[in-house]
Amino acid sequence: MLRLNRDLDRKSLAGTYAREGYVQIASLFPDDVAAAIEDALRHRTRWRLAVLGADGQVRTFREDALRGMSPADAAALQRDVMGRARDGFGFAYHFYPIVETYVAGEDKGHVLHDLLRWLNQDEWLDFGREIIGCSTVDHSDAQATLYAPGDFLTRHDDDYGNEHDRRAAFVIGFTRRWRTDWGGLLQLLDETDRVETAFAPQFNLVTFFKVPRWHSVSYVPPFAGEGRYSITGWLDHLS
């Protein structure tokens, strides 16, 4: 049942992307599709925590590991994460590795696995090629993300120099209720760290932006009354 909204003005949207280097597209999916993905994210996804420690290594934790962590170990982890963010690149956010779990046969029948397959089929890839003006895109990579209170992602440009040549990033939002002072803003930055533009979480809306481009997700404070749910991914060319 996964399908795009048929009423999108692709030519106009592609023109905005070519001019600005980014574009936001509202009502990406029909209402029933968006609601099904939202339900999967909110109620049927076993989230993990990803952090970058002071040693520069990515560390991931399942929910049971977090619950079993001693207060001293939790405090030490928090110090490592904040120290890394203070001095350079750092992050702490919740995620679901769609590709990893799909390949491993974990959580069989999950809606997000259906979504991953669809993101690598012609309907989505043709749409992405048209919007970003790149005919060589041949696959998508994606993960589900949840920014809960205390989560953040500091300045980076998504260019990791591996075999997957990322042509554009996309963030599909599934957050219905949000206040800008709850943070979680997707911020597009210039070379001097100034914010060129920032986008609050929204529902059934995708943001495409060119890679590489400096960007960040602002800190979600403890008083935030909601989680920031999204599908984050890239349109890639396999080099």
Give a quick precis of the structure.
31% of the residues lie in helices and 32% in strands.
Question: How would you describe what is shown here?
Answer:
This protein is of the alpha+beta class. The protein has a single domain (10-46, 101-238), classed as Jelly Rolls, CATH 2.60.120.620. Helix content is 31%, strand content 32%. The chain is built from seven helices and twelve strands. The chain has helices at 10-20, 31-43, 63-67, 71-87, 98-104, 111-119, 122-132, and strands at 22-26, 48-52, 58-62, 91-96, 139-147, 152-156, 164-174, 186-189, 195-199, 203-210, 215-217, 228-238. A hairpin with a 5-residue loop joins strand 2 (48-52) and strand 3.
How does the SSE layout of this entry go?
Blueprint: H1 10-20, E1 22-26, H2 31-43, E2 48-52, E3 58-62, H3 63-67, H4 71-87, E4 91-96, H5 98-104, H6 111-119, H7 122-132, E5 139-147, E6 152-156, E7 164-174, E8 186-189, E9 195-199, E10 203-210, E11 215-217, E12 228-238
Antiparallel strand pairs: 1-10, 2-3, 2-4, 4-5, 4-6, 5-12, 6-11, 7-10, 7-12, 8-9, 8-11
Helix pairs in contact: 1-7
Number of domains: 1
Helix content: 25-40%
Strand content: 25-35%
The name of the CATH topology is: Jelly Rolls
Cα gyration radius (Å) = 18 Å
Q: Descriptors for this entry?
A:
Jelly Rolls; alpha+beta; single chain; 239 residues; twelve-stranded antiparallel beta sheet; 32% strand
